[in-house]
Amino acid sequence: MKHRGRGAETNPPNRFEKLHVETDEDAWIDDDPRPLRTTFLRDDSQSILATNEADDISYDYGLNPYRGCEHGCAYCYARTYHEYLGFSAGLDFESKIMVKAEAPGLLEKALAKPGYRPGVISLSGVTDCYQPVERKLGLTRGCLETLARFRHPVVIITKNALVTRDIDHLAELALHHCVAVYLSVTTLDTDLARVLEPRASTPRARLETIRTLADAGIPAGVSAAPMIPGLNDSELPAILAAAAEHGASFAAYSLVRLPGAVSDVFAAWLDRHQPLAKEKILGRIRASHGGKLNDSTPVTRMRGTGEAAAQWKALFHACCRK
What is this structure's pTM? Predict the structure, then answer.
């Protein structure tokens, strides 16, 4: 069953659940089913900061105002985190969004605790803090207001131009050298982006966002991520060049990895959108992760291993020197 505007088309089994329900493809169902509606569920977590203990990640705390992500990127490694909530990493991840309605207040309490040790906070690690619902709820904006009052360092990574709404708080943080914003640009091909990241801002809008932030004095850069061998990796130089032309002052990249059920979601996406290239793409991903579709080893999980990974690294640094 196809769902328009979604990165996934099914709900793969949850590895923690014994029961799994599948649609009978032979049943008499409407060929054009009703659009899958996104539902928002309250998350009453009493803490908001997750301590980072990974050596290959540069921030100290993760702050996720939401769980799940409307952007629906087919490759997103964070899909597996939805399984801990009893959901699937497929359609559930992009259509059942957990909302931490008290996020700004919880953040203020966390920063004010006597034993709190300041460090760089990331918005966000396993969601996009500027996904469409943020326009209405403003939880990320509330968190930024708190961070600006505390003059607390924060790094933001997003695929959504909505970040420009909060230029006032970002500019205040920039005055104290407390902020950096990465726009994630996976491809410059609008048609590819439309199906790979169906509800994220267009590549052009993301590049224009870099320019808008840079013109406002806010440190802005690009994350060319993820690079998917055989699909978008050839675009790395063009993405970096376009970002530089739009005012990016720093850059990063990473290689795709497909943990758990994400491999099923992405394989189904390839069947639908890149059927002839599917085996080549999956084969090249495996070749860059020691024969597997995922690598959880620090450092190599981001960069990959082998000859191709070494070439991407060299190419990235060569492009950044230009």
Answer: 0.92
